[in-house]
Amino acid sequence: MFPFFFDPTMIVILPALLIAVYAQYKVKNTFKKYNQINLNSNLTGAEAARKILLSNNLSNIEIRQTDGKLSDHYDPEKKTLNLSADVYHNNSVAAVGVAAHEVGHAIQDKENYKPLSLRASLVPAANIGSSLGLPLAIFGFFIRADFLIMTGFVLFSAAFLFHLVTLPVEFNASNRAISNLKNSNLLNQEELKGVKKVLKAAAFTYVATTLVALANMLRILLLAGLGDD
């Protein structure tokens, strides 16, 4: 039996955690780099977002400034586009790229993009699963209760499914952003290349988060196996 508070399956999660740390480093540095390159048009993130929204007949979407850094998101319930200060006010390649990406989510909402609605429906279960699933499984391992381990697995499955569904949602929003920026001629070719790099770095963070969730799923299964020893 392993010493109390020692989780022998931590080795499984370490590679995924390292990838996640690198992904965060990559997105922050990529955003920082392209946030220092201003557009020739001098459009801010909020202004570019409004132009793309209008071109897609989404004049009902309110654009708001939100607190935090890289906290940008679209709220499908309130129909608001929430942009951080760095994105809302700046006229940089990075700011416009991020703003356009969030508009991509608004367009998904308008077109009833199924993965977006599926992700939204998974939020309550995913919140419960991500907060309780793994701790419950680890607790079950220490007290040798297979039922608790498998309950933790089932709960955490919802969190993993949420991350899995997030991938097509985010990739699709980025593709819509690039397509709209290209078709609207808001950026020149070099600026568009910069946007692609920013959005590619952001996409990597979602892949990394999904890998961490997958590794934790594997950890719970390993705990179940070790608990039988």
From TrEMBL:
Parts of the chain that traverse the membrane: 6-25, 122-143, 149-169, 203-226
Pfam families (UniProt xref): Zn_peptidase_2
Keyword entries, A-Z: Membrane, Transmembrane, Transmembrane helix
Database matches in InterPro entries: Zn_peptidase_2 (IPR007395)
Keyword Lyase on entry: no
Domain of life: Bacteria
This protein's name: Peptidase membrane zinc metallopeptidase
Organism whose genome encodes this protein: Halanaerobium praevalens (strain ATCC 33744 / DSM 2228 / GSL)
